[in-house]
Amino acid sequence: MVTLQTFLGTWAGDDAARKAVAGTVTAIAQAGLGIADLVARGPLEESLAKVRGVDPNAGGDTQKELDVVAEERICAALMPTAAAFLASEESEELIPLNPEGRLVVAVDPLDGSSNIDTNVSVGTIYSIMPYDPAEQADPKAAVMRPGRHQVAAGFLAYGPATILVATFGDGTQVFVHDRLSGDFVLARTEVEIPAETKEYGVNQSNVRHWDAPMQRYLDDCLAGKEGPRGKDFNMRWVGSMVADAFRIFTRGGVYVYPADKRKGYENGRLRLIYEAFPLAFLVEQAKGGATDGKTRILDIQPHHIHQRIPLVFGSRAEVEKIASYY
Ligand code: AFP
């Protein structure tokens, strides 16, 4: 049995930079266990699913009590690690952590928060970038770099099992929290997303707002065997990206959240730095693909910490097929 600790110990060896990353991921995983406990209390903690105040968060979304509690837990856990700053969906500006740190962490503390009170999986997404104060006088510059500079990324999903899907740039691994031992245990070493799929995940109620290429893609899928794709498709949409992503890591598929014509959705819904970048890194390390339709996600230069991006990721051949409609 390989635990997260053993895995990270072997991966880091005596390398100080790797040890710093390992300590940071361990802290996020520990904070995640506390968040999982809160999520598991469900209606017994119904105040956590309540909308907090009247103001939306930094990205313009409604903030739930648990969004804020999750951010507080992650911040506290990261304080003694090598993380110098935290970029979070819930905070407009970077949060300073360890002044000696040489990493910056970006998080969506609670992805899928509209599902908190419905007993559906929610999760925490993180991305880790190196930070050198000599090169990046403004720490925002360390966060606002294309996602290919990430040194590690992952997400925790709080569902029937609490799982951690992680990459350190050498494949994608799945760890499962073992409730008996209390450890995260390595369950899958080299995740490989099947290149081909017949399963897509979209919020189909928005199709009329989409642009023409994406509408054509869906029309062709819906036409099934008799249509240009020559095969019948299946649709799955949880509405918590971590849950939809974990299904894709397990059996393939594509996740599609395009830009659309609704006010506020002109660049899609997902955030580039703390949602699309980490998912794209994980997916590529599992031999899948991630694009905004035209550009590889990991090559996009951010221009704002909370910017949104159209997002397509999953089975490589299907992601390429979608890009071909553009
Ligand atoms: P919340 O965290 O606000 O619930 O948003 C979750 C999310 O960003 C992502 O996890 C889902 O895939 C997506 O929104 C669902 O969006 P729709 O409700 O528009 O389908």
Structure, briefly:
Helix 1 (4-12) runs antiparallel to helix 2 (16-40) and helix 2 (16-40) packs antiparallel against helix 3 (65-78). The chain is α+β, with helices and mostly antiparallel strands and 326 residues long.
**Strand fraction band?**
15-25%
| Terminal residue distance | 46 Å
Fourth-tier CATH superfamily name of the largest domain: Fructose-1,6-Bisphosphatase, subunit A, domain 1
Helix amount = 25-40%
Which regions have little confidence, pLDDT < 50, spanning 5+ residues? none
Structural class: alpha+beta
What pattern of helices and strands is seen along the backbone?
A: HHHEEEEHEEEEEHEHEEHEEEH
Give the overall form: globular
Number of strands: 15
Tally of helical runs: 8
Mean of residue pLDDT? 95
CATH class value of the largest domain: Alpha Beta
**Which distinct ligands sit in these coordinates?**
1,6-di-O-phosphono-alpha-D-fructofuranose
Which radius of gyration do the C-alpha atoms yield? 19 Å
Largest sheet: 8 strands, mixed
Q: Which fold name corresponds to the CATH topology of the largest domain?
A: Fructose-1,6-Bisphosphatase, Chain A, domain 1
Strand order of the largest sheet: 2-1-3-4-5-6-7-8
Architecture of the largest domain, CATH level 2?
A: 2-Layer Sandwich
Q: How many discrete structural domains?
A: 2
